[in-house]
Amino acid sequence: MADRLERLKARIKELPDRPGVYLHKNAEGEVIYVGKARNLRNRVGAYVVGKGDRDPLAAALVKEIEGIDFVTTNNELEAVMLENNLIKTHQPRYNVLLRDDKTYPYLKVKMSEDFPRVVFTRRVDRKKGELFYGPFFAGTARRLLKLVADQFKLRSCDLEIIDGKSALPRPCLYYDMHKCLGPCVVGLTTREDYRDMVDDVVLFLSGKSKELQRRLTERMYHAAESENYEIASYYRDLIRTVERVQSEQQVASAEEEDVDVWGLYEEGGDIATQLFVIRDGNVVDRRELFWEKIGDYQPSYFLGEVVQRY
Fold this sequence. Notes:
By secondary structure, this protein is α+β, with helices and mostly antiparallel strands. The protein has ten helices and nine strands.
């Protein structure tokens, strides 16, 4: 027991003071818990060797920990996303809170409606054909929801709006404020124009900013050529907004590709390789392999042999 605790303490000292995700493993190398941290060293240290009272589940987990792996991220949001991906992949038995996808909020695009809305939700049910984006911190999700409402002019009401029928005799204040296209009143917009804006929101939430900017730029130039300068300025401002808020996540790929990314590090004859498993653009797993006292070797040849045997 003492040797195990000393090994874990030594491992904790190796953890960086950075955001990221940590993976607790048992004696068989099975991932039994995945967690996120603003500061990996502080969080894991407090969790594993802290002296505070623990609930029975946490106490049982700590007794099983034999190894600790980690992945650093650029920020806490990336850590949330990677944590969620790794939990879905490994399904650790101690991660009872995240397994059903209800802990962190998502944004849902209600594609089943004639005039779709974007809503805040903690329940993910993909069987109905709705689109889900996340997970997010609650504050981030609400800021994105407000941005979508303010900039993309989708409706935020819960009215049942059917194409070709007016739900109200006149539009609400959001239409007058130019924050909604007004699908509630026939003649203010068309289903096709509204769906174009929905497609823009989907691109925005998917992180496909280049494709979105291309679409918006085409509309901006078309409006300018038609001397509709008010519409052109709207698209110009929207492009600037997208450029400002849309940052690529390092734990995911916008191309939704499947790829295995290998890395190699050598020091004093010892070699460490790391594998990041990316599926559908998301990092779903991370693995490490170690060799000691290899001696002379060619890095490219060595890594090639490892990949072939993996």
